[in-house]
Design goal:
Layout (H helix, E strand, L loop, with lengths): L1 E5 L2 E5 L17 H16 L5 E5 L9 E6 L2 E6 L3 E8 L12 H9 L30 E4 L2 E6 L14 H7 L2 H7 L6 E10 L9 E11 L2 E9 L5 E11 L7
Antiparallel strand pairs: 1-2, 3-6, 3-9, 4-5, 5-6, 7-8, 8-10, 9-12, 10-11, 11-12
Helix pairs in contact: 1-3
Amino acid sequence: MSGVLHDGQMRLEPPVIIPAQFNGPSRSGNGGYVCGLVGNRLADRLGADQPVTATLRVPPPLETVLAWRDEPGVVRLVAGVGAVVAEATAGTYAGTPVEPVPPDVAAQAYRDYEGYVDHPFPHCFVCGSARTLGDGLLVWSGPVGDGRMACPWSPPAAFCADDGLLRRELVWAVLDCPGGWAAGIKANPMVLGRMTASVARRPKVDEPCLVVADRRGTSGRKNHAATTLYGADGDIIGRSEQTWITIDIEAFS
């Protein structure tokens, strides 16, 4: 159990463990999922509609006991005696949401998903082509031109809470990987480094949604992208902006 200070009083909390199922690369946690864990904890204080920036400091370890360290304005997920795995602070967006595409365009993009043939992390919980329904989220976004990606997607029942709505940290996960494909992860393997996101609402099980992502530039090893998740009524469920870091794929295999 870990102690976290709340309103001047210490409260014991259970440890945090990232299940092996929620991996990105084979030996570390999915970046969007882990950012969602720390991001939602801070969003509970700031308000769900306020953007939060989550930063991954090290590859998130799987099946390892982690703990919360809360301070004014920042939430940290730590390992061992205090090594920071991820942290969240209040954030701002640099650009606008990614514009939607027509349903037929998204459907074709899903069929054209580049990860079906060659995927740097085929067992990724969010976008891995080796995953099956109920085992992963199966967010398979394909190209629609101009550096954008899109796909239709619906929340699987296996990852919805008792109220029939997708768990909030998993909305962050959905807002993660499509940006990596827009940034060019197939040609240049990369992992998530930072993510700014907000979640307006949680989609319901099997709700027909639309995921769109856009490349937003490159600077050295840093690759920038944005993702927007639209609901059945065309409303924005959530949006994100990400920074992806080009890596040596052998180090993450």
